[in-house]
Design brief:
By secondary structure, this protein is of the alpha+beta class. It has one domain. 37% of the residues lie in helices and 17% in strands. The chain contains three helices and three strands. It has a three-stranded antiparallel beta sheet. Strand 2 and strand 3 form a beta hairpin. It is flat. The chain starts with 7 loop residues before the first strand and ends with a helix.
């Protein structure tokens, strides 16, 4: 298997209006997903925190856009 580019962590959020990027993550219109490049995580001083912030941020954006009752979901 030949890998031409490093894999990335992706979270699917359809058309996230108002989603604010706080890291080097970006929204890819073709994939319709938020993408956090592997090199961003690997090159971070604290990779665990970088990845966790990305996952929490995309989760929060999706939950808010879907108007979830987060207090019930996150109990």
């Amino acid at each position: 298997m030949v890998v031409r580019r490093a894999p990335s962590t992706r979270t699917r959020i359809r058309n996230p209006p108002g989603y604010r990027e706080r890291t080097e993550a970006y929204y890819d219109k073709t994939l319709q997903e938020c993408v956090l490049p592997y090199k961003t995580v690997a090159g971070s001083a604290d990779p665990d925190t970088t990845l966790l912030e990305f996952l929490r941020g995309t989760y929060a954006a999706a939950a808010d856009l879907a108007d979830w009752d987060r207090s019930a979901v996150e109990a």
